[in-house]
Amino acid sequence: MSDRFSPTPEQKFTFGLWTLGNKGSDPFGSATRPGLSPVEIGRMIADVGAYGVNFHDNDLVPIDATPAERDQIVRDFKKMLEETGLKVPMATTNLFYDPVFKDGAFTANDPRVRAYAIQKTLKAIDLGAEFGAGVYVFWGGREGLETDAAKNPAVATQRFREAMNFFCEYVIDNGYGMKLALEPKPNEPRGDMFLATVGHALGFIETLDHPEMVGVNPEVAHEQMAGLNFLHGVAQAWERGKLFHIDLNDQYFGRYDQDFRFGMADIKRAFMLVKFLEDVNYEGSRHFDAHAFRTEDYEGVKDFARGCMRTYMILKEKAEQWNKDSEIQAIIADLNSDQDGANALLGAYSPEAAQKLKAAALDRSVIAKRGMRYERLDQLTMEIILGVR
Ligand code: GCO
Ligand code: MN
Ligand code: MN
Predict the structure, then answer these.
(1) Which terminal Cβ of the chain has fewer Cβ within 10 Å, N or C?
(2) Is 161 in contact with 106 (CB distance < 8 Å)?
(3) Domain boundaries along the sequence of the chain
(4) Measured between alpha carbons, how far is 106 from 372 in angstroms, rounded to an integer?
(5) Does 56 qualify as catalytic in the annotation?
(6) Could you tell me the distance, in angstroms and rounded to a whole number, from the CA of residue 16 to the centre of ligand 1?
(7) Is the pLDDT assigned to residue 363 strictly greater than 70?
(8) How far is CA 340 from CA 155, 267, 375, in A?
C-alpha cells in the first residue's frame, strides 16, 4: 500500500547491510534470524522502498575472501544494484569485529595494528569508490579504552589525526572525490571512546590538513546515550557545512546501545530533528542505523524498516503543519520582535558600537517581566504531534 507517507527518493532513505541483515544476536544470546547474503539483504532494502544501501567492507566481502571471491561478490552485488536501482551513497570499514582490533585501530598501542587498520581502510575506500560512494564514514568502534592507564588520550588524538590526514591525501591522489565523515560515540563497545561527541569531532576536524574534506556523521543514539541534545550537535555541524551524513535511530537514556526504530523512544525529539533537517533542506542521506527487535522474523524486519521511513514522512508532514500554524507563527514572531529597537545595538564590534551599547538604556527589571509563552508553544507542538490540532 502506498500513500502520502511512503518513502520518496528526495529523502534519500538508506539502510546498511548490517541493519536489515542484523540476525538478532546480543551479548546474552545467539542469532534468532538466519543469515542472508548481501544480495538478499539488498533486495529486501529495495523491497521496502529505500533509496540506497550502505556497507562495511566485510558486510559485502568477508575478511578472508580470496581476490577471485571478492570479484565475484562485487559483480553479484552490482547486478542486484542495477536490477533494483538502489544506490550506494556511503561506505565504511569494519575496524571493530576482528580480534586484531581489540585495542583499537588507528589509536591502538601496537603499531602493527595501526598499520593493518590503515591498510584495511585503504582497500575498503577502494571498494567504496568502486560503487560510487560519495561519503566515507569513520566510526571508531574500538578507538578507546577501559582504563586510562592504557593510553594517553592526547597521543590517541595525534594518531587519529595522522590516519585521517593519510586518508584525505589518498582520496585526493586517487581522484575519488569522496567526503569523509567521522561518527562519534561516547562508549560501547569500549568503556570510553575517543572523539566521544559531535562537538569533540568538530573541534578535531579543524586540526586536520584537509578540514574541508572531513565532516561528521552524527547518530541519534550516540548523543542520547551521553544525555546530550542530539539536535544541537546536528545543528552546529550543519551550520558549518559539516553535516555530511546522519544516522537515524532511537535510544532511551541510561540504557545499553538500543538502536531502536527511528522515533520510537522520543517522538518529540524525533519531530524537532525532522523539522530541522527539512527546514534547512539537508541534502545528504537519511540513513537508518538501527535494527529490528530480536523477536522478529524477516517480515518483522521489513515492518521495522518501513516504520523508520514512515515515521520520518509523518513527522515531515507535521513539521509543515507546524510551520503553517498561525498561532505558533504569531508566538515565534512575537518572541523575536525587536522590542524598543535593541537590534540596532547588536552586531559586529566597533569602538562606536561599544560606546553606543554602553550608553544604552536597558532596564533589566522591565525586560525580565516578559513571559515567553513557551508553555503554550510546547503544548501546541504536542497537539500537532499527537494529531489533535
Ligand atoms: C554502532 C555504530 C555503527 C556505525 C557503523 C558505520 O553503534 O555500532 O553506530 O553502526 O554506524 O559501523 O560505521
Ligand atoms: Mn550506533
Ligand atoms: Mn551509526
Answers:
(1) N
(2) no
(3) 9-319, 326-385
(4) 49
(5) yes
(6) 9
(7) yes
(8) 53, 38, 25
Atom of ligand 1 nearest to the CA of 92: 13
In this structure, which residue's CA is closest to atom 8 in ligand 1?
141
| pTM score, whole prediction | 0.97
9-319: which CATH topology?
TIM Barrel (3.20.20)
Cβ neighbour number for residue 103 with a 10 Å cutoff = 19
Mean local confidence (pLDDT), 161-178 = 98
Instruction: Read off the pLDDT of residues 118-132 as tens digits, 9 standing for 90 and up.
Output: 999 999 999 999 999
59 counts as catalytic? yes
Grid cell listed for 141: 568502534
Kindly give the distance from the C-alpha atom of residue 109 to the centroid of ligand 2, in angstroms, as a whole number.
Answer: 24
Mutate to test the pocket of ligand 1, among 106, 219, 246 (most ligand atoms within 8 A of CB): 219
Which residue has cell 538466519? 34
Joined grid coordinates for residue 281: 533542506
- CA angle (113 as vertex; 112, 115 as ends), nearest 5: 65
Q: Of 3, 57, 59, 71, which one is the catalytic site residue?
A: 59
d(CA 113, CA 297): 38
Closest residue by Cα to residue 231 from 190, 174, 272 = 272
Instruction: Supply 255's cell numbers.
Output: 540504557
